[in-house]
Amino acid sequence: MDANAHKSQGFVGCDGTKIENGNFKVQSVSNQWKTATPYIRRDFYKITLFTGIARLHYADTGILIDRPALVFSNPLVPYSWEPVSDTWTGNYCQFTEEFMNIHERSHQSFQDSPLFKIGGNPVCFLSAAQYATVEALFQKMIEEEATDYIHKHDVIKNYVNLVIHEALRVQPAEPVSRPTSAAVRITMSFMELLEKQFPIVHPSQTLSLKAAGDYAKSLAIHVNHLNHAVREVTGKATTVHIRERIIAEAKLLLRNTDWSIADIAYALGFDYPAYFNNFFKKQTGMTPRSAKLVTTGSN
Predict the structure, then answer these.
(1) Which residues on neighbouring strands pair with residue 123, listed in sequence order?
(2) Which single residue of 42, 83, 145, 182 could bond 13 by disulfide (Cβ 3.0 to 4.6 Å)?
(3) Residues 91, 28: contact at Cβ < 8 Å?
(4) Residue 191 has pLDDT above 60, yes or no
């Protein structure tokens, strides 16, 4: 399995959402979901223009969105949507930093932006006039994406930046929480270490960092300090992040490779396949073998 295969086949989030061209997706939606979406991280930035009533579960905070709003999501913080009203409409775009060419302009990350940074307020409420302005920009993205213009993505990037600047004009007043800068740095360093271990591309590749203590040692801090920072910033324990990422990778390996269950277990850091079997079943309700049969049978 090629380490870059996920780019050529489309950028896939932990919840299965796919960016078809590998870097960008834009869409108009209405009443797309009736039940809460999974509470997980997605592997891309997302801007959602929303009108209706829903509750956004973001980190350890619940935010009621009961009027037109823009919602900004980053790849490090888990979130989910819970519908409250029966009807709603909106637009969204998903993109990677690679698509926006962030690193060509500076060493800054979108995670440093006031709208996307962890610990900030992800929701920007809009007036009717502001909503109409942003909706028009989304419509321009959709129309441009449908063209054959060779430089269309350069045009789309400008529209995305205009949406961001419209939100910055509104300037949300109060952040949801104010984690210390040290907590943010520690959390981002932990997340980077976690992601650097994936994807698993060969059975001989084994996770070197398996537990919270391993990450704490690598970051040269006490494990309690790491746990406190990660929970403060994301609302979830360090072990939960590790567990969810391992399960997500296990599902990908079960679905996309012909490796044995034992090979997958060892690659994911389990000393014995039985340990992996018990872990996977506890988290998903299925054994790895059953999951592999289900995914194989659905192809």
Answers:
(1) 71
(2) 42
(3) yes
(4) yes
Alpha carbons 204 and 289: distance in angstroms, whole number:
20
In the sheet with 89-95, reading across from the earlier edge strand, the strands are: 24-30, 89-95, 45-51, 69-73, 123-125
195 and 137 both lie in a single domain: no
Burial (CB < 10 A; 0-12, 13-18, 19+), residue 274, is exposed
Report whether 262 contacts 273 (CB < 8 A).
yes
Lowest-confidence region among 11-25, 130-144, 176-190: 11-25
Find all residues with CB under 8 Å of 66, minimum gap 6, and list them: 53, 84
Last residue within a domain, chosen from 120, 149, 170: 170
Report the Cα 59 to chain-centroid distance in Å: 12
For the stretch 46-63, pLDDT in tens is 999 999 999 998 766 788
With 0.85 as the threshold, say if the pTM is over it.
Answer: no
Q: Is 227 left (phi over 0), alpha (psi -120 to 50) or beta?
A: alpha
Write the CATH number for 119.
Answer: 2.60.120.280
Q: By residue range, what is the domain housing residue 190?
A: 181-298
Structure tokens at 292: 């592999």
94 close to 48: Cβ distance less than 8 angstroms: no
Q: What are phi and psi of 18, to 5 degrees?
A: -125, 130
